[in-house]
UniProtKB/TrEMBL annotation:
CDD domains: DPM1_like (cd06442). InterPro entries: DPM1-like, Glyco_trans_2-like, Nucleotide-diphossugar_trans. Pfam families: Glycos_transf_2. Keywords: Glycosyltransferase, Transferase. It comes from Tessaracoccus flavus. Coiled coil: none annotated. GO terms for cellular component: membrane. GO terms for biological process: glycolipid biosynthetic process. GO terms for molecular function: dolichyl-phosphate beta-D-mannosyltransferase activity. This is Dolichol-phosphate mannosyltransferase. Belongs to the glycosyltransferase 2 family. Gene3D superfamilies: Spore Coat Polysaccharide Biosynthesis Protein SpsA, Chain A.
Amino acid sequence: MARMTSQDALDSVLVIIPTYNESQNIESITTRLRRAVPDAHILIADDNSPDGTGEIADRLASDDDHVHVMHRKGKEGLGAAYLAGFHWGLDRGYGVLVSHDADGSHQPEQLPRLLEAIRAGADMVKGSRWVSGGSVVNWPKSRELISRGGSLWTRLWLGIPVKDATGGFNAYRASTLRGISLDEVASAGYCFQIDLVWRALKNGFRVVEVPIEFVEREFGDSKMSRHIVVEALIRTTLWGIEHRLGQLTRLGRRTLTRGDGAS
Ligand SMILES: Nc1nc2c(ncn2[C@@H]2O[C@H](COP(=O)(O)OP(=O)(O)OP(=O)(O)O)[C@@H](O)[C@H]2O)c(=O)[nH]1
Ligand SMILES: [Mg+2]
């Protein structure tokens, strides 16, 4: 499918922060975001965190008309929280939607760089640890291996040029999100990020990677689990098989057509 011509209002930005037990992080990340990109609005999508993150978010929202809160029933994974956040933002006409973790790994001060790439013409921008200029701080070697390995696995199966397929610090034009059938996305864990970039590329959208410095969380607990890694492995492998079979079928058809023409 050809890339759509976009009429998105690029100065109308919504940053979505999914939270589950981020009471030690949510206030500082919100403050930093407000300072770094003062015109942007923030939506905190909280899954009824037992540690009271939702109440802190309510207080932040009551003090600041640029901060909004979505209270969700219970823990459903970051994919579901982002999808609900995207729909909320698209319904309200935001032109650019950003995914941003609460735990300090994504640095609000680097968001202007992502938005600049959107304004320069990208349909989707990925903050990337694994392009030149990108880096990780305080990450254990084991996490780096999982992340680099996951991106390599994805690139090999799907044949995509993206170096940091699993990265979660991303900016999307509204038209990109409208053009990638969000209703069909079923990925729950960080495979969600691969799902979206794969859909964007398949639909002909221009994806650009911008280097970021990714910082290991200082406070609170990671929600990464074996289940999340297994989900990503299974889904990318299935997409890869489908993709490679499609390539083989097309190749076979072309060969047959050429054969017909020759006879
Ligand atoms: N609403 C919601 N947010 C979630 C859920 N799971 C994780 N998050 C949030 O998604 C963001 C990323 O989660 P992390 O636990 O940092 O996962 P990660 O970044 O893959 O793993 P680490 O690098 O180990 O921190 C954080 O802001 C979490 O609070 C969930 O089920 N629901
Ligand atoms: Mg994290």
